[in-house]
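Input (structure):
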Protein backbone atom coordinates (compact mmCIF):
# COMPACT_ATOMS: atom_id res chain seq x y z
CA UNK A 1 0.00 0.00 0.00
CA UNK A 2 1.47 3.34 -1.04
CA UNK A 3 0.54 5.49 1.98
CA UNK A 4 3.17 5.70 4.67
CA UNK A 5 0.63 4.81 7.32
CA UNK A 6 -0.35 1.70 5.42
CA UNK A 7 3.11 0.42 4.70
CA UNK A 8 5.37 -1.52 6.98
CA UNK A 9 7.57 1.13 8.61
CA UNK A 10 10.84 -0.68 8.02
CA UNK A 11 10.06 -1.39 4.37
CA UNK A 12 9.24 2.26 3.84
CA UNK A 13 12.51 3.32 5.42
CA UNK A 14 14.47 0.76 3.40
CA UNK A 15 12.91 1.94 0.14
CA UNK A 16 13.54 5.60 0.88
CA UNK A 17 17.05 4.90 2.10
CA UNK A 18 17.71 3.11 -1.16
CA UNK A 19 16.95 6.35 -2.96
CA UNK A 20 19.37 8.26 -0.77
CA UNK A 21 22.08 5.80 -1.78
CA UNK A 22 21.13 5.99 -5.44
CA UNK A 23 21.01 9.78 -5.27
CA UNK A 24 24.44 10.11 -3.69
CA UNK A 25 25.97 7.69 -6.18
CA UNK A 26 24.34 9.56 -9.04
CA UNK A 27 25.92 12.81 -7.92
CA UNK A 28 29.31 11.19 -7.36
CA UNK A 29 29.28 9.63 -10.80
CA UNK A 30 31.81 11.10 -13.24
CA UNK A 31 29.50 10.80 -16.21
CA UNK A 32 27.36 13.71 -17.38
CA UNK A 33 24.74 11.16 -18.36
CA UNK A 34 24.57 7.37 -18.39
CA UNK A 35 22.18 6.95 -21.26
CA UNK A 36 21.54 9.28 -24.18
CA UNK A 37 18.50 8.96 -26.37
CA UNK A 38 16.90 11.30 -28.87
CA UNK A 39 13.97 13.33 -27.47
CA UNK A 40 11.47 11.32 -29.51
CA UNK A 41 12.86 8.07 -28.14
CA UNK A 42 12.59 9.33 -24.58
CA UNK A 43 9.08 10.51 -25.35
CA UNK A 44 8.04 7.12 -26.61
CA UNK A 45 9.56 5.46 -23.58
CA UNK A 46 8.07 7.72 -20.93
CA UNK A 47 4.89 9.28 -22.23
CA UNK A 48 2.65 6.32 -21.44
CA UNK A 49 -0.92 5.84 -20.30
CA UNK A 50 -1.81 5.77 -16.64
CA UNK A 51 -1.87 2.09 -15.67
CA UNK A 52 -5.26 0.67 -14.72
CA UNK A 53 -3.88 -1.45 -11.90
CA UNK A 54 -1.65 -0.32 -9.14
CA UNK A 55 2.09 -0.69 -9.50
CA UNK A 56 3.76 -1.66 -6.26
CA UNK A 57 5.97 0.97 -4.70
CA UNK A 58 9.12 -1.19 -5.09
CA UNK A 59 8.48 -1.46 -8.84
CA UNK A 60 7.92 2.28 -9.10
CA UNK A 61 11.20 2.87 -7.32
CA UNK A 62 12.89 0.41 -9.65
CA UNK A 63 11.51 2.28 -12.68
CA UNK A 64 12.73 5.58 -11.29
CA UNK A 65 16.19 4.24 -10.67
CA UNK A 66 16.63 2.07 -13.75
CA UNK A 67 14.67 3.90 -16.43
CA UNK A 68 14.33 7.56 -15.57
CA UNK A 69 17.48 8.45 -13.67
CA UNK A 70 20.08 7.12 -16.15
CA UNK A 71 18.82 9.67 -18.69
CA UNK A 72 19.11 12.57 -16.24
CA UNK A 73 21.96 15.04 -16.65
CA UNK A 74 24.31 15.09 -13.71
CA UNK A 75 25.33 18.68 -13.14
CA UNK A 76 27.54 17.57 -10.28
CA UNK A 77 29.71 15.63 -12.72
CA UNK A 78 33.22 17.08 -12.99
CA UNK A 79 32.77 16.80 -16.76
CA UNK A 80 29.80 19.15 -16.69
CA UNK A 81 31.69 22.37 -17.29
CA UNK A 82 29.06 24.81 -18.52
CA UNK A 83 27.28 25.71 -15.30
CA UNK A 84 27.86 24.68 -11.73
CA UNK A 85 24.43 24.15 -10.27
CA UNK A 86 25.66 21.00 -8.59
CA UNK A 87 23.06 20.75 -5.84
CA UNK A 88 25.73 18.72 -4.09
CA UNK A 89 26.09 20.45 -0.75
CA UNK A 90 25.48 17.74 1.85
CA UNK A 91 23.96 20.05 4.45
CA UNK A 92 21.64 21.48 1.80
CA UNK A 93 20.60 17.99 0.74
CA UNK A 94 19.86 17.20 4.37
CA UNK A 95 17.75 20.34 4.68
CA UNK A 96 15.93 19.44 1.50
CA UNK A 97 15.16 15.94 2.72
CA UNK A 98 13.81 17.31 5.97
CA UNK A 99 11.62 19.80 4.12
CA UNK A 100 10.26 17.01 1.94
CA UNK A 101 9.04 15.19 5.01
CA UNK A 102 8.11 18.13 7.19
CA UNK A 103 5.69 19.52 4.56
CA UNK A 104 5.62 23.08 5.81
CA UNK A 105 3.82 25.80 3.90
CA UNK A 106 5.41 29.22 4.10
CA UNK A 107 2.21 30.95 3.14
CA UNK A 108 1.28 31.23 6.83
CA UNK A 109 3.26 31.12 10.03
CA UNK A 110 0.90 30.08 12.81
CA UNK A 111 -0.50 26.78 11.59
CA UNK A 112 1.50 26.05 8.44
CA UNK A 113 5.11 26.98 9.16
CA UNK A 114 5.71 27.81 12.83
CA UNK A 115 9.50 27.39 12.79
CA UNK A 116 10.07 27.36 9.02
CA UNK A 117 8.99 31.00 8.81
CA UNK A 118 11.82 31.98 11.10
CA UNK A 119 14.56 29.90 9.49
CA UNK A 120 13.44 31.62 6.28
CA UNK A 121 13.72 35.03 7.93
CA UNK A 122 17.20 34.11 9.18
CA UNK A 123 18.30 33.11 5.66
CA UNK A 124 16.99 36.33 4.14
CA UNK A 125 18.87 38.32 6.76
CA UNK A 126 22.09 36.38 6.11
CA UNK A 127 21.79 37.11 2.41
CA UNK A 128 21.10 40.79 3.08
CA UNK A 129 24.06 40.99 5.37
CA UNK A 130 26.36 39.27 2.88
CA UNK A 131 25.39 41.57 0.03
CA UNK A 132 25.63 44.78 2.07
CA UNK A 133 22.09 45.72 3.15
CA UNK A 134 21.70 46.56 6.84
CA UNK A 135 19.32 44.50 8.94
CA UNK A 136 17.03 45.78 11.67
CA UNK A 137 17.67 44.32 15.13
CA UNK A 138 16.06 40.89 15.54
CA UNK A 139 13.68 42.26 18.17
CA UNK A 140 12.49 44.85 15.67
CA UNK A 141 11.43 42.16 13.22
CA UNK A 142 7.77 42.19 14.13
CA UNK A 143 6.15 41.50 10.77
CA UNK A 144 7.08 40.25 7.30
CA UNK A 145 7.46 43.91 6.36
CA UNK A 146 10.50 44.18 8.65
CA UNK A 147 12.39 41.32 7.01
CA UNK A 148 13.57 43.00 3.82
CA UNK A 149 13.13 40.23 1.34
CA UNK A 150 11.17 37.29 0.03
CA UNK A 151 12.23 33.94 -1.33
CA UNK A 152 10.95 32.82 -4.72
CA UNK A 153 11.39 29.84 -7.02
CA UNK A 154 14.07 31.50 -9.11
CA UNK A 155 15.74 34.60 -10.44
CA UNK A 156 12.84 34.99 -12.84
CA UNK A 157 10.34 35.21 -9.99
CA UNK A 158 12.58 37.57 -8.04
CA UNK A 159 13.09 39.86 -11.04
CA UNK A 160 9.36 39.87 -11.72
CA UNK A 161 8.61 40.96 -8.16
CA UNK A 162 11.28 43.65 -8.53
CA UNK A 163 9.61 44.96 -11.69
CA UNK A 164 6.27 45.05 -9.85
CA UNK A 165 7.93 47.10 -7.13
CA UNK A 166 9.33 49.45 -9.76
CA UNK A 167 5.89 49.82 -11.29
CA UNK A 168 4.14 50.48 -7.98
CA UNK A 169 6.91 52.85 -6.96
CA UNK A 170 6.43 55.04 -10.03
CA UNK A 171 2.65 54.65 -10.22
CA UNK A 172 1.32 53.72 -6.78
CA UNK A 173 -1.96 51.83 -6.84
CA UNK A 174 -1.44 50.18 -10.24
CA UNK A 175 -1.98 46.86 -8.47
CA UNK A 176 -5.58 47.89 -7.85
CA UNK A 177 -6.33 50.29 -10.67
CA UNK A 178 -4.64 48.45 -13.50
CA UNK A 179 -1.88 49.67 -15.76
CA UNK A 180 -2.22 53.24 -17.03
CA UNK A 181 -0.08 55.51 -19.18
CA UNK A 182 1.95 56.39 -16.15
CA UNK A 183 3.59 52.99 -16.37
CA UNK A 184 6.95 53.41 -17.95
CA UNK A 185 9.97 51.87 -19.55
CA UNK A 186 12.93 50.15 -18.05
CA UNK A 187 16.56 50.50 -19.06
CA UNK A 188 18.78 47.46 -19.61
CA UNK A 189 22.21 46.92 -21.15
CA UNK A 190 21.97 45.83 -24.80
CA UNK A 191 22.82 42.30 -25.84
CA UNK A 192 23.75 40.88 -22.43
CA UNK A 193 20.48 41.08 -20.49
CA UNK A 194 18.52 38.14 -19.13
CA UNK A 195 15.14 37.55 -20.79
CA UNK A 196 13.40 37.39 -17.42
CA UNK A 197 13.34 41.16 -16.97
CA UNK A 198 11.58 41.79 -20.26
CA UNK A 199 9.24 38.86 -19.69
CA UNK A 200 8.44 40.27 -16.26
CA UNK A 201 7.27 43.52 -17.83
CA UNK A 202 5.09 41.56 -20.20
CA UNK A 203 3.62 39.43 -17.41
CA UNK A 204 2.81 42.43 -15.22
CA UNK A 205 0.99 44.23 -17.98
CA UNK A 206 3.58 46.91 -18.73
CA UNK A 207 4.39 45.58 -22.18
CA UNK A 208 7.98 44.72 -23.04
CA UNK A 209 9.02 48.35 -22.92
CA UNK A 210 12.73 47.91 -22.65
CA UNK A 211 15.22 50.59 -23.65
CA UNK A 212 18.52 48.97 -24.54
CA UNK A 213 21.61 51.02 -23.83
CA UNK A 214 24.89 50.18 -25.61
CA UNK A 215 27.62 48.46 -23.60
CA UNK A 216 31.39 48.50 -23.43
CA UNK A 217 33.22 45.48 -22.12
CA UNK A 218 29.88 43.93 -21.03
CA UNK A 219 28.99 46.92 -18.84
CA UNK A 220 26.84 49.95 -19.56
CA UNK A 221 28.53 52.54 -21.73
CA UNK A 222 28.18 55.26 -19.11
CA UNK A 223 27.99 58.12 -21.57
CA UNK A 224 25.19 56.32 -23.40
CA UNK A 225 23.40 55.57 -20.12
CA UNK A 226 23.61 59.18 -19.07
CA UNK A 227 22.33 60.35 -22.47
CA UNK A 228 19.45 57.86 -22.49
CA UNK A 229 18.30 58.82 -19.00
CA UNK A 230 18.38 62.51 -19.92
CA UNK A 231 16.67 62.04 -23.31
CA UNK A 232 13.90 59.90 -21.81
CA UNK A 233 13.55 61.73 -18.50
CA UNK A 234 10.18 61.06 -16.88
CA UNK A 235 9.59 57.95 -18.99
CA UNK A 236 11.69 55.46 -17.06
CA UNK A 237 10.60 53.46 -14.04
CA UNK A 238 13.66 51.29 -13.51
CA UNK A 239 17.30 50.88 -14.41
CA UNK A 240 18.52 47.29 -14.23
CA UNK A 241 22.18 46.50 -13.62
CA UNK A 242 23.64 43.02 -14.01
CA UNK A 243 25.86 42.06 -11.17
CA UNK A 244 27.24 39.27 -13.25
CA UNK A 245 25.42 39.07 -16.58
CA UNK A 246 24.31 35.54 -17.37
CA UNK A 247 26.85 35.03 -20.16
CA UNK A 248 30.22 36.41 -19.02
CA UNK A 249 29.40 37.16 -15.36
CA UNK A 250 30.80 40.66 -15.77
CA UNK A 251 29.92 42.78 -12.76
CA UNK A 252 28.46 46.18 -13.58
CA UNK A 253 30.07 49.29 -12.13
CA UNK A 254 27.21 49.65 -9.68
CA UNK A 255 28.41 52.84 -8.06
CA UNK A 256 28.57 54.61 -11.41
CA UNK A 257 25.13 53.34 -12.52
CA UNK A 258 23.68 54.41 -9.19
CA UNK A 259 25.23 57.88 -9.30
CA UNK A 260 24.26 58.56 -12.91
CA UNK A 261 20.68 57.39 -12.34
CA UNK A 262 20.09 59.15 -9.05
CA UNK A 263 21.57 62.43 -10.32
CA UNK A 264 19.13 62.47 -13.25
CA UNK A 265 15.98 61.04 -11.67
CA UNK A 266 16.02 59.97 -8.00
CA UNK A 267 12.58 58.33 -8.41
CA UNK A 268 13.85 55.60 -10.72
CA UNK A 269 13.85 52.13 -9.10
CA UNK A 270 17.38 50.76 -9.18
CA UNK A 271 17.44 47.00 -9.49
CA UNK A 272 20.56 44.84 -9.37
CA UNK A 273 20.29 41.34 -10.80
CA UNK A 274 22.92 39.54 -8.74
CA UNK A 275 21.86 35.99 -9.58
CA UNK A 276 25.57 35.30 -10.08
CA UNK A 277 27.02 38.32 -8.32
CA UNK A 278 26.12 36.96 -4.92
CA UNK A 279 29.34 34.95 -5.27
CA UNK A 280 31.37 38.15 -4.98
CA UNK A 281 30.01 38.59 -1.47
CA UNK A 282 31.55 35.30 -0.34
CA UNK A 283 35.10 36.57 -0.28
CA UNK A 284 36.81 39.89 0.39
CA UNK A 285 38.88 39.13 -2.72
CA UNK A 286 35.80 39.95 -4.82
CA UNK A 287 33.60 41.86 -2.38
CA UNK A 288 34.77 45.27 -3.59
CA UNK A 289 33.18 44.56 -6.98
CA UNK A 290 29.79 44.99 -5.31
CA UNK A 291 30.54 48.51 -4.09
CA UNK A 292 27.42 50.63 -4.49
CA UNK A 293 24.93 47.73 -4.49
CA UNK A 294 23.81 48.70 -1.00
CA UNK A 295 22.24 51.83 -2.48
CA UNK A 296 20.12 49.92 -5.00
CA UNK A 297 16.41 49.56 -4.22
CA UNK A 298 16.27 45.83 -4.86
CA UNK A 299 18.62 42.92 -5.52
CA UNK A 300 17.91 39.49 -6.97
CA UNK A 301 20.10 36.64 -5.75
CA UNK A 302 19.92 33.04 -6.94
CA UNK A 303 21.43 30.66 -4.38
CA UNK A 304 20.41 27.60 -6.40
CA UNK A 305 22.88 28.74 -9.04
CA UNK A 306 25.88 29.60 -6.93
CA UNK A 307 25.65 27.80 -3.59
CA UNK A 308 25.48 24.11 -4.53
CA UNK A 309 21.96 23.85 -3.16
CA UNK A 310 19.29 21.77 -4.90
CA UNK A 311 16.62 23.64 -6.89
CA UNK A 312 14.69 25.88 -6.46
CA UNK A 313 15.53 28.85 -4.33
CA UNK A 314 16.07 32.51 -5.08
CA UNK A 315 15.49 35.68 -3.12
CA UNK A 316 14.54 39.25 -3.80
CA UNK A 317 16.08 41.60 -1.26
CA UNK A 318 14.88 45.18 -0.81
CA UNK A 319 16.87 48.02 0.70
CA UNK A 320 13.86 49.38 2.57
CA UNK A 321 11.99 46.41 4.06
CA UNK A 322 8.72 48.35 4.16
CA UNK A 323 8.78 48.79 0.38
CA UNK A 324 7.30 45.29 0.11
CA UNK A 325 4.01 46.84 1.19
CA UNK A 326 3.80 48.13 -2.39
CA UNK A 327 3.09 44.62 -3.66
CA UNK A 328 1.32 43.11 -0.67
CA UNK A 329 -2.06 41.50 -0.98
CA UNK A 330 -4.49 40.53 1.70
CA UNK A 331 -7.01 37.79 1.79
CA UNK A 332 -9.02 36.00 4.42
CA UNK A 333 -7.51 32.81 3.07
CA UNK A 334 -4.02 33.92 3.96
CA UNK A 335 -4.08 34.56 7.66
CA UNK A 336 -3.60 38.25 8.17
CA UNK A 337 -1.00 37.61 10.75
CA UNK A 338 2.28 39.42 11.21
CA UNK A 339 4.53 36.66 9.95
CA UNK A 340 2.53 35.25 7.04
CA UNK A 341 4.86 35.41 4.03
CA UNK A 342 1.90 34.75 1.74
CA UNK A 343 1.08 38.44 1.99
CA UNK A 344 4.32 39.58 0.37
CA UNK A 345 5.00 36.96 -2.29
CA UNK A 346 3.15 37.89 -5.50
CA UNK A 347 2.34 34.93 -7.77
CA UNK A 348 3.00 32.37 -5.03
CA UNK A 349 0.42 30.68 -2.84
CA UNK A 350 1.43 27.41 -1.26
CA UNK A 351 5.15 27.64 -0.83
CA UNK A 352 7.58 24.88 0.01
CA UNK A 353 10.31 25.23 2.59
CA UNK A 354 13.05 25.60 0.00
CA UNK A 355 15.03 28.06 2.07
CA UNK A 356 15.92 25.41 4.65
CA UNK A 357 18.40 24.00 2.11
CA UNK A 358 20.19 27.32 2.07
CA UNK A 359 19.86 27.73 5.82
CA UNK A 360 21.62 24.39 6.32
CA UNK A 361 24.27 25.17 3.70
CA UNK A 362 25.11 28.57 5.15
CA UNK A 363 25.17 27.29 8.73
CA UNK A 364 27.45 24.46 7.70
CA UNK A 365 29.93 26.71 5.88
CA UNK A 366 29.85 29.88 7.91
CA UNK A 367 31.45 32.98 6.46
CA UNK A 368 34.87 31.39 6.36
CA UNK A 369 33.57 28.33 4.58
CA UNK A 370 31.96 30.50 1.92
CA UNK A 371 35.24 32.35 1.44
CA UNK A 372 37.11 29.04 1.10
CA UNK A 373 34.54 27.74 -1.34
CA UNK A 374 34.95 30.82 -3.49
CA UNK A 375 38.72 30.76 -3.29
CA UNK A 376 38.74 27.21 -4.66
CA UNK A 377 36.40 28.23 -7.46
CA UNK A 378 38.66 31.12 -8.39
CA UNK A 379 41.69 28.85 -8.52
CA UNK A 380 39.81 26.48 -10.84
CA UNK A 381 38.77 29.43 -13.00
CA UNK A 382 42.31 30.77 -13.20
CA UNK A 383 43.63 27.37 -14.14
CA UNK A 384 41.12 27.11 -16.96
CA UNK A 385 41.86 30.65 -18.10
CA UNK A 386 45.55 29.76 -18.29
CA UNK A 387 44.86 26.63 -20.31
CA UNK A 388 42.75 28.57 -22.81
CA UNK A 389 45.34 31.32 -23.12
CA UNK A 390 48.13 28.81 -23.72
CA UNK A 391 46.21 27.05 -26.47
CA UNK A 392 46.86 28.61 -29.88
CA UNK A 393 43.54 27.27 -31.23
CA UNK A 394 41.46 29.01 -28.57
CA UNK A 395 40.67 32.63 -27.84
CA UNK A 396 39.24 33.93 -24.57
CA UNK A 397 36.57 36.63 -24.91
CA UNK A 398 36.21 37.88 -21.32
CA UNK A 399 38.36 38.71 -18.33
CA UNK A 400 36.52 36.75 -15.65
CA UNK A 401 35.12 38.78 -12.75
CA UNK A 402 33.94 35.53 -11.18
CA UNK A 403 34.01 32.01 -12.57
CA UNK A 404 32.78 32.25 -16.17
CA UNK A 405 35.29 31.88 -18.97
CA UNK A 406 33.96 32.51 -22.46
CA UNK A 407 36.12 31.25 -25.29
CA UNK A 408 36.12 30.28 -28.94
CA UNK A 409 37.83 27.80 -31.16
CA UNK A 410 39.69 29.58 -33.94
CA UNK A 411 40.03 27.77 -37.27
CA UNK A 412 43.61 27.23 -38.46
CA UNK A 413 42.92 29.65 -41.31
CA UNK A 414 41.93 32.44 -38.88
CA UNK A 415 43.39 35.80 -39.84
CA UNK A 416 43.03 38.31 -36.99
CA UNK A 417 42.97 41.19 -39.46
CA UNK A 418 40.16 39.65 -41.52
CA UNK A 419 38.19 37.38 -39.22
CA UNK A 420 35.67 35.17 -40.98
CA UNK A 421 32.93 35.52 -38.34
CA UNK A 422 30.55 33.21 -40.13
CA UNK A 423 33.05 30.38 -40.34
CA UNK A 424 34.20 30.84 -36.74
CA UNK A 425 30.57 30.69 -35.58
CA UNK A 426 29.68 27.75 -37.80
CA UNK A 427 32.52 25.69 -36.38
CA UNK A 428 31.80 26.75 -32.82
CA UNK A 429 28.14 25.79 -33.16
CA UNK A 430 29.10 22.48 -34.72
CA UNK A 431 31.50 21.81 -31.83
CA UNK A 432 28.72 22.49 -29.34
CA UNK A 433 26.26 20.30 -31.22
CA UNK A 434 28.77 17.43 -31.13
CA UNK A 435 29.42 17.99 -27.42
CA UNK A 436 25.70 17.71 -26.68
CA UNK A 437 25.31 14.79 -29.01
CA UNK A 438 28.10 12.75 -27.49
CA UNK A 439 27.24 13.77 -23.92
CA UNK A 440 30.71 13.09 -22.55
CA UNK A 441 31.37 16.69 -21.59
CA UNK A 442 29.33 19.80 -21.25
CA UNK A 443 30.06 23.43 -22.10
CA UNK A 444 27.37 26.07 -22.45
CA UNK A 445 26.77 28.09 -25.62
CA UNK A 446 24.89 31.31 -26.40
CA UNK A 447 25.10 34.33 -28.66
CA UNK A 448 27.23 37.19 -27.44
CA UNK A 449 28.25 40.55 -28.86
CA UNK A 450 32.05 40.80 -29.07
CA UNK A 451 32.17 43.65 -26.59
CA UNK A 452 35.90 43.44 -25.95
CA UNK A 453 36.76 43.42 -29.66
CA UNK A 454 38.96 40.35 -29.39
CA UNK A 455 37.70 38.98 -32.69
CA UNK A 456 35.70 41.84 -34.17
CA UNK A 457 34.13 44.58 -32.09
CA UNK A 458 30.36 44.25 -32.06
CA UNK A 459 30.17 41.01 -34.06
CA UNK A 460 27.67 38.46 -32.78
CA UNK A 461 29.61 35.40 -31.69
CA UNK A 462 28.55 31.92 -30.57
CA UNK A 463 31.26 31.00 -28.09
CA UNK A 464 31.57 28.25 -25.50
CA UNK A 465 31.36 28.97 -21.80
CA UNK A 466 33.11 27.28 -18.89
CA UNK A 467 32.22 27.85 -15.27
CA UNK A 468 34.57 27.06 -12.42
CA UNK A 469 31.93 26.54 -9.73
CA UNK A 470 31.95 22.77 -9.44
CA UNK A 471 34.41 21.74 -6.74
CA UNK A 472 34.99 18.38 -8.42
CA UNK A 473 36.59 19.85 -11.54
CA UNK A 474 40.30 18.97 -11.53
CA UNK A 475 42.98 20.24 -13.87
CA UNK A 476 42.94 16.92 -15.71
CA UNK A 477 39.25 17.41 -16.55
CA UNK A 478 39.96 20.86 -17.93
CA UNK A 479 42.90 19.63 -20.02
CA UNK A 480 40.95 16.67 -21.36
CA UNK A 481 37.90 18.79 -22.15
CA UNK A 482 39.93 21.37 -24.02
CA UNK A 483 41.81 18.68 -25.94
CA UNK A 484 38.41 17.26 -26.85
CA UNK A 485 37.10 20.66 -28.02
CA UNK A 486 40.24 21.34 -30.01
CA UNK A 487 40.08 17.87 -31.54
CA UNK A 488 36.46 18.39 -32.53
CA UNK A 489 37.34 21.76 -34.04
CA UNK A 490 40.15 20.28 -36.12
CA UNK A 491 37.98 17.42 -37.34
CA UNK A 492 35.16 19.80 -38.26
CA UNK A 493 37.58 22.02 -40.17
CA UNK A 494 38.49 19.11 -42.43
CA UNK A 495 34.87 18.55 -43.41
C1 LIG B 1 19.50 32.61 -14.43
C2 LIG B 1 19.27 34.05 -14.38
C3 LIG B 1 18.00 34.55 -14.09
C4 LIG B 1 16.80 33.67 -13.91
O1 LIG B 1 16.94 32.82 -12.83
P1 LIG B 1 16.12 31.46 -12.70
O2 LIG B 1 16.57 30.97 -11.38
O3 LIG B 1 16.52 30.60 -13.85
O4 LIG B 1 14.67 31.81 -12.76
C5 LIG B 1 17.86 35.92 -14.01
N1 LIG B 1 18.91 36.75 -14.21
C6 LIG B 1 20.15 36.29 -14.50
C7 LIG B 1 21.28 37.25 -14.70
C8 LIG B 1 20.37 34.93 -14.60
O5 LIG B 1 21.59 34.47 -14.93
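Output (sequence):
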Amino acid sequence: MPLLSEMDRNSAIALLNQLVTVGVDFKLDDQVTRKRLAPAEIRDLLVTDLPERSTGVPSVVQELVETVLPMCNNEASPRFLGFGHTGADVAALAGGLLALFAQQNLINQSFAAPSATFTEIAVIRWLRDLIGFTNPAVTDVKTVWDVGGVTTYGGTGSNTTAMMLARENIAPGTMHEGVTDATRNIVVPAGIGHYSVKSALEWIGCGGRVIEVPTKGYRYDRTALDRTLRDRQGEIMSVVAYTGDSRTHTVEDLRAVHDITRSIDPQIWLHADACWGLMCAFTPELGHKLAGIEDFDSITVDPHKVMDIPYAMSALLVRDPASLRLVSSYSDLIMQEDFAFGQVTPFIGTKEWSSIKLWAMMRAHGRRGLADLMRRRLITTRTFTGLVDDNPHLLRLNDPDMTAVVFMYLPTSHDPLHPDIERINTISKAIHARILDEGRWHFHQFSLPDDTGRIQQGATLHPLRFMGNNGRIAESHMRDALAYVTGLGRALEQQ
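Notes: The pocket of pyridoxal-5'-phosphate is lined by residues 154-156, 159, 194, 196, 242, 246, 273, 275-276, 302, 314 (CB under 6 Å). The chain has a mean pLDDT of 95.
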